Amino acid sequence: MLPTADGTRHAAGMPLAEGGRSSGAPPVLETPAGLRAKDLLSIGDLSANEILLILETAEAMKEVGTRTIKKVPTLRGKTVVNLFYEPSTRTRASFEIAEKRLSADTLNLAATDSSVVKGETLADTVRNLEAMAPDIIVLRHGSAGAGHLAARLCRARIINAGDGMHEHPTQALLDALTIRQRKGRVEGLKVSIIGDLLHSRVLRSNVLLLRALGAEVCACGPATLMLPDMPRLGVRATTSIDEAVEDADVIMLLRIQLERMRGYFFPSLREYFQLFGMTVARLRRAKPDVIIMHPGPMNRGVEIASEVADGPYSVILEQVANGVAVRMAVLYLLAGARQE
């Protein structure tokens, strides 16, 4: 059931008319606040109840993807700009599909195709976009805090699609949706996150979300790729992959981000795989119903063996599918938020 403009609940299988009511009802001009904040910049800005609202809304949105015509008029008349300063496949494609399924008008801008190559700053770019009155800007940028800067400059709602090594909130939300679908809950599960912890925005968002929903989080990687403030975040840190995998309900692998590394963090990729790569043999220490996750793109033979990536425990493609539903939910709920 989806929240509608008059505060009632709307069945996902019934198309929404303009204004948010079911077809046949008189239209309304105002939609209630779905989330407290104008923007989605960080998981830390969401309460546990808001996280659950997004996940429950995403569950309803999944039904749209099963229809013959995968489209609802929910965001008809809304304009969404996808502004990506970094390469992306899954995130950008799923946002675009989510927007089209909600009937929004979309504009896709890559930094390489924009005035950024001529020296235009992020601030000037978003000010120029703001002058065209978009409703939502989805922003991916290589610098931490880029979304916060855009939010201060724009009346448009900003969705952080990844900012440097800071956060990637919609990735954590789709991960949580996948875990809930497979495990029925997040609370009480042991979730082990293994890989390049230092450079990962996925780690930061997932730790905030998983801890908010009551999971036990264990982080594992080489000492050179370990965050110094893990205990403050409520995370048990270890450099032993055997300890991390032991009795794990969920194993989340992180890509080695060579493009962000300045210096040498381990001798070679081959040695990294030998010490920290996820293999079938290592999986035997986990729970029998363990699930394997990866935000992508995967480096096969580095953080994960192909037998694991393509094996029966992998839910990696389910994560990709859930990304569309979660981003539909976020767009829907943010578009319904009132300006205070």
As a percent range, the share of strand residues is 5-15%
| Global outline | globular
Low-confidence stretches: 3-33
Radius of gyration: 20 Å
Strand order of the largest sheet: 9-8-7-10-11
Largest sheet: 5 strands, parallel
Helices and strands, in order, run as EEHEHEHEHEHEHEEHEHHEHH
Q: Compute the number of strand runs.
A: 11
What is the terminal separation in angstroms?
26 Å
- Helical fraction equals 25-40%
> How confident overall, as mean pLDDT?
88
3D architecture notes:
- The protein has 340 residues and is of the alpha/beta class.
- The protein contains eleven helices and eleven strands.
- A five-stranded parallel β-sheet has the order 9-8-7-10-11. A four-stranded parallel β-sheet has the order 4-3-5-6, with helices on both faces.
- It is globular, with a radius of gyration of 20 Å.
- The N terminus is likely disordered.
What is the element layout, followed by pairings?
Elements: E1 2-3, E2 9-10, H1 48-61, E3 79-84, H2 90-101, E4 105-110, H3 122-130, E5 136-141, H4 146-153, E6 157-163, H5 169-183, E7 190-194, H6 201-212, E8 216-220, E9 236-238, H7 241-245, E10 250-253, H8 269-276, H9 280-283, E11 291-293, H10 306-309, H11 316-335
Parallel strand pairs: 3-4, 3-5, 5-6, 7-8, 7-10, 8-9, 10-11
Antiparallel strand pairs: 1-2
Question: In short, what is this structure?
Answer:
Helices cover 33% and strands 14% of the residues. It is an alpha/beta fold and 340 residues long.
